């Protein structure tokens, strides 16, 4: 059974049709590369899944059970986490403090409860080790590379033990070495049985890590196929409209 199913999902903003009848199934431990030109509907689709926008038409199911998200907190409670392109990290805080941002651990009784920094650092360190990242819990985010920042953002999603992680352009504007680190992090999520939806304009990254490619054009799905059965040239044609469907 698919961990996530979208059936005929459409989304419009007034007269603007952002998504038109998109259906998609996502399996546990699967990485799906979501591709398309600017305005194709990729971010809108991810935000519908993440609870930022309610769909106008269609239904969403998790492990066969229909769900309706009114806000992002509903999606998070159902096991869906999202890593935005800007990562939403606080540069003045440590890696551990960012992992637990908004979910801080406390110790003590009643009004005397204080932040349990030791417990947060310990668990953050375990998550970084699990992801095989060199990031350390006490490291300040402002001193980190792009790859290390992604490790912090991904560790934050792991804290909630998610079933699905949505990633928006995680390899944009970082070095080749850091791209390799981020792709390795995505593979670690897959190894733990977590489904990943990867939005990216970088064709080599998608072909390096994805099991399946979904292409959107003008809000409609025009391709959904295993990476092994496609090519960068075909995907480029699908994105531009030179190829209608695949």
Automatic annotation (TrEMBL):
InterPro entries: AAA+_ATPase (IPR003593), ABC_carbohydrate_import_ATPase (IPR050107), ABC_transporter-like_ATP-bd (IPR003439), P-loop_NTPase (IPR027417). One of its GO terms (molecular function) is ATP binding. It holds the Pfam family ABC_tran. Residues 4-243 form the ABC transporter domain. Keywords: ATP-binding, Cell membrane, Membrane, Nucleotide-binding, Repeat, Sugar transport, Transport. Coiled coil: none annotated. It comes from the Bacteria. This is Sugar ABC transporter ATP-binding protein. It comes from Ramlibacter agri. The lineage of its organism: Bacteria, Pseudomonadati, Pseudomonadota, Betaproteobacteria, Burkholderiales.
